[in-house]
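ok trying this again, last paste got cut off
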Amino acid sequence: MISEYAVRRWFRPAVYIEPGIIGDGATVELPRGAGDRCGDVVRVKILDIHELKKLLRLGGPIVAASLLHMAINVTDIVMSGQYGSSDLAGVALAVAIAGPITALLMGTISGITPLVAQKFGAGGGPSSAYLGRQGIWIGILISGIAIVLIANGHRLISIIADGNSDNAVATSIGYLESVIWGLPALSIYSVLRSTSEGMGHTKPAMIVGIIMLFLNAGLNYVFIFGHLGVPELGGVGCGVATAIVNWCAAITMIVVVQVSAFLPVDFFKRKLPVDISQIREILIVGVPIGLSIFAEWGVFSLVAICLSRFGEAVVAAHSIALNINGLTFMIPHALGMAAAIRVGHQVGGADNMGAKITGNTTVRIILVYSGVMAILLLLLNSHIAALYTNDTQVQTIAASIIIFVAVYQFIDNTQATALGTLRGYKDTRIPLVFVLVAYWTIALPIGLGLGFGWILEHPMGFSGFWIGLGAGLLFASLSLNFRRLRVANDDKRIRVLTGSALG
C-alpha cells in the first residue's frame, strides 16, 4: 500500500490518507506507480462530509449556546451604550477586569469536558459523569478566589481610569461590586455544562441560553433605566442583572439536565466526598485551559485599560469592536468545543484516525466561515458600529477597528479550533506555552510599542495595539495548528497524553 509519506511528498499539502476507503467528500486518485512500489490506488479525502455532519450535529447546540451567551454581553453593551457613552465606557472597564477572572474560572472547570468525553468514549456510559461532580469542589475554591479578586478591582480602576469621567469610574466600581454575587452560581452552571457536553449532550446549554437571553434583556431594562419601582442604576444595572441571571442559569441547568435524564439517577443525591485523585486529574487538564483563556482575555483587557488613556470614545469603540470580534469568534470557538468532544470520544475508543479526520474537517469548515465573515465585516463595518451607539465619534473609531477584526478572522478562528482539537487529546500544557508566548511576548510588547510610540516616532493609538494583537494571533494560529498536526500523526504521543493527561 502507498505510504502516507509518499502522498505528502507528491501531493502537498495532503492531510490524511485512507487506503482502500471510499468516503464522502472530494477525493484525489493517485495512479499506479506514483511513489509506491506496489502501485496501489488510494483516496485522499479533502473534506469528510460524514464527519462534518457529526460535528455540526454536535456543535450546533454549542454554537447556539455560545452565541446566546455572547448575545447577553451584546445586550449589556448596547443597552448601557444607549443609556450613555460614559456608562458604556464604565462597563467596558469593569468587564476588562472581571472578564479574565471569570474566564479563568470557567476555563479551569471546562477541563471536565475532555476527561468525561474520553471516559464516555471508552465505554464508561452514564457513570462517566461522576467525575464531573468533583468539579463542584473546584468551583467553590476558584469562585471564592474570583470574588476576592474582583471585589478589589476598584483599586485597579482608580489607577487606570485616567481619561475617563467620574461617572465612568463610579459605574465600573458599582458593576464589579454587583457581579461578584453571581460567581458561585456561574461555577455550578459551568460544572453541569462541561459534564453534559463531555457526554455528548449539548442541548441543555442551548436551552438555558435562550431563557437567559430574554431574562437578561428584561432585567437590564428594569435595572438600567429604572422600572417596576427599581432605582435607575445606569451601567451598574448590568452587573446586578448579570448576577441574577447567573443564579437563574444554574437553577435552570439543574432542572434541564434532570428532565433530560442522561445523568446517573443519583448524580444529585449521592454524598460528595472529596476525591483528590479526580480533582487533581481535572486540574491537570483544566488549569492550563483556564490560564490560556486568562492569558488571552488578560491581554485584550490590558489593551482596553491602556486605551483608556486615549479617552472614553476610544474605550467605548474598542469595547464595541471586541464585542463584534466575540460574536464572530463564537462559532469557531463552539466548533472547537465540539471537536474536543468528538476527539475525546474517538481517542477514548482508540480511533486515532477518526480524531485526525475531525481536526482536519473542523479547520477546513472554519476557513470557509472566516472568509465569509471577513467580507461581511469589511462591507458593513460602519453600519454595525451604528447599531451600538448614537455617538458619531465612537461610531467612526469603532468602524476603523472592525476592519482589524475582519482581517483577523482567519488567524483568530483557526487558532480556536486547533486549541479545541488539542483539548480533546488532553494536550493542554504545551498549547498554554504557545498562548503565553503569543500574547505576552509578541502581542503586548508590539502593541505597547506601536500604540504609545515607543517603536515608531509617533504613537499609533488603537491601531498600534490592534496590529500587536494581530501579530500574536498569527503566531498562536501557526504554532497551535502545527502542534495539532504533530499530535494527530503520532499514536505514541496520543497514548501518553490520554493515559496520563500530561503533555
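PB: full thing came through this time. Residues 1-46 form one domain.
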